[in-house]
Amino acid sequence: MCCLCIAAQMNHRTIFQSTDHNYLTNQTKVRYFTISLINKIRRTEEASQILLKRIHRIKEIERRKRKTKLDLTKVM
């Protein structure tokens, strides 16, 4: 094999190795990005559940206040 063929073959192999490395690096980045997005969505869902519970609790307190006001006006 001539020197040019060997050089071309080595260069070709290096290009493929770097391409594989870049592909894997990009896949890893995509994987981490996806995981971080999923975690953000979970935190958002948890936060919305907490807010819903607080809203229900506040509505229940307001309902009780109105009920006691009505009861007090009936007594008077």
Shape estimate: rod-shaped
Give average pLDDT, whole number. Answer: 77
Strand content: under 5%
Rg over alpha carbons: 33 Å
How would you characterize the largest beta sheet?
none
| H/I helix tally | 1
Order of helix and strand elements from N to C terminus: H
* Helix proportion: over 70%
Alpha-carbon distance between the two ends: 110 Å
Classification by helices and strands: mainly alpha
Number of strands: 0
Could you characterize what this model shows?
With 76 residues, this protein is mainly α. The chain is built from one helix and no strands. The protein is rod-shaped. The chain has a domain at 45-76. The model has no long low-confidence stretch (mean pLDDT 77).
Fold topology:
Blueprint: H1 3-75
Summarize the structure.
This protein is an all-alpha fold and 76 residues long. It has one helix and no strands.
Which keywords apply here?
rod-shaped
